[in-house]
Amino acid sequence: MTSAFDPGPSGDTFPCGQCGAKLGYDAGTQAMKCPYCGFQQAVPQAGGGHVREIPIEEGMRLAARGYGTPVAQVSCRECGATVNVPPGEQTATCTFCRSHQVLAQQSAGTAIRPESVVPFKVDKNSANHRFDEWIGSLWFRPNDLKKMAKVEGFAGVYVPYWTFDARVDSSWTAEAGYHYYETETYTDEQGNRQTRQVQKTRWESARGRRTDTFDDVIVCASKGLPENLGDSFRTFNTGELTPYRPEFLAGWRAESYAIDLMPAWDTGQTIMGSTQWSRCRSDVPGDEQRNLHVDNHFSRVTFKHVLLPVWIAAYRYQDKPYQFLVNGQTGEVIGKAPYSFWKIFFFVLFLIAVVAGIAVVVNGQKSKGSSSSDTRTPASLPAKAPSRSGR
Fold first, then answer.
1. 228 exposed, middle or buried (CB, 10 Å; 0-12, 13-18, 19+)?
2. pLDDT by residue (tens digit) across 342-368?
3. Geometric angle at alpha carbon 118, from 313 and 160, rounded to 5°
4. How far is CA 129 from its chain centroid?
5. Where are the transmembrane segments (predicted)?
6. What is the DSSP string of 218-266?
7. Is the distance from CB of 159 to CB of 225 less than 8 angstroms?
């Protein structure tokens, strides 16, 4: 393996001040920690503790490049993810899909450096515990799933995201509908004339404007995570972003972004535009509306390239990859798992049997009730009065 990026001014090997071994970032203590003697050291603050927002039109010129620390880079030929690992780490499988088709490669180190990072708070033991709870709660899954997934274990990865801030000036046009009622005369089934109130709608043209600001709209830039999973996290708190320091990557993996800045901004505009459409819809007066058209103008756009912490349990079942994710900041869990055809099949048969059994009981009770109410034995019939014709 080769080093993909140039080291920082001091080489950024982070030696332990007590025993000289290499320090790594520890999620439990949120500090640099020696795995041998336990020595701890705080991560220095960068940029005065302030996270920088970069104007999007200046992004390619102002953004720093590389990770500022030696890393090795491996690329997966199956899912396409490119992951940066600590130098010397022997990586035989892909972190995201567990494929063995990984290839060490060298990068020019020209990728935009992360501007900020949310450090890991959830440690590996906690992630494992959440995984056990999640997989134990699943129904209709293969019996051997828990054993297979647990064997593969967890990997902590910093996943790349872009965040965007913007001011959006929106103008809209629509037709606003106002309800009113008219009295209508009609003839009922008996031939009588009746009256009733009928709702009508009066349509009028409407227009308006509004201005809103967006802060830290996040767009996943990963290629290793399936799109529906990478965008599913809802609990990342970007208020806890801290300026990027190479120390945060010590002992951890970090995926390189696969979606460039401008394509990500296109996605960001779509997200903001959808929100603005809903807001403008709420501004339309009347009881209902139609033909809403919204025109958005984006300004004061800034971005950050950020790394967000994710624990990944990638496993393969019948040669198909599945992922289980734990938000390394909040502990939120997201996962996909295969279904067991036979469990679902037998459960459906069970439901059919239950429904059929209930139907038989109900029909039997109806038949019994009908029989007891409509039939009488001869003994229960009233005695016939004697005839008086013989007198």
1. exposed
2. 566 666 777 888 887 787 777 777 666
3. 60
4. 20
5. 341-362
6. EEE--SSS-HHHHTT-----GGG-EE--GGGGTT-EEEPPSS-HHHHHH
7. yes
From CA 117, how far away is CA 241, in angstroms rounded? 5
What are the structure tokens assigned to 144, written together?
């051997």
At which residue do the structure tokens 């912490």 appear? 309
**Burial (CB count <10 Å: 0-12, 13-18, 19+), residue 391:** exposed
**What number of residues does the chain have?**
391
CB 219 within 8 A of CB 272: no
- CB-based contacts of 152: which residues, under 8 Å, 6+ apart? 98, 313, 314, 315
- Strand order across the 31-33 sheet: 24-26, 31-33, 40-41
The span from the CA of 197 to the CA of 218, in Å, is 51
Contact predicate 309/114, CB 8 Å: no
DSSP state of 377: -
